[in-house]
Design a protein that fits this description.
By secondary structure, the protein is an alpha+beta fold. It contains four helices and seven strands. It has a seven-stranded antiparallel sheet. A hairpin with a 7-residue loop joins strand 5 and strand 6. The protein is globular.
Length: about 260
Amino acid sequence: MVKFYENSFSYNYSFSAVSLAYFLRYPNPYATHVLSTDVIDRHFDPSSQRLSTTRLHLKKSKIPPALLKLLPKGMLGTSSDAGQSYILEKSVVDINEGWMKTESRNLEWTGILSVIEKQTYMRPIIGNRSGVSTSIEITDDTTDTDTNVTTTVTLVSRFGQGKTMANRRKGDLTPAGLQGPIGEENTPVKKGFFSAWSTSSMQRSIELVGMRRTRDALVKSKEGMNVVLERLRLGGLVEVLEGMRRDREAAFGPDGPWRRA
């Protein structure tokens, strides 16, 4: 089963400001679950003038109780790491053409639910506008500084799929005529059908739960970006960094999310 979700909106800020805010969005008051962010690769192509970045986010994550009851014990690891998950983020920015494409995916619990989020940020094309502005223009008065965003989320649950495939392979290896007592040859077929139906239903339920959480997360993500953009507008990078410090202390205390030994 596969679920799709798509949403489009606009930030009333310039593309240069929005693309900068994207890389400075953690922490913020709407993302207190983000524990850390690390850049694991960054490359600038001088020929295309594009910046490619790969980052790894560590987030606090909680599986809904309704789903926890269905999972085997020990599937989520130890109690110390069961509430955390890694998110891999890749992005490409083209400041000349005025677009940025991003892709984020979860690295944990992919057997339960795999979530792939893709976003495209674009500067509006106005007439025959030419020339490239490399300055950070931060205003909220004119449509010339809007940034359009399109978000597409794909959710895929493979819960129980491995066991179903194993049962099918086992059934394929069973010699013909040994399915069961005479008159009950169709019994394993019926059992396989209902088992597959139950697995499909479970996958669909997991994807629906994931869809609801995705919609809520996208709303908070947009609000968090607006906070960062407003800080840029009011005080530039200094205000953004100061705001990040305040948010980190408010969420984790003066020592941050890591405990002292």
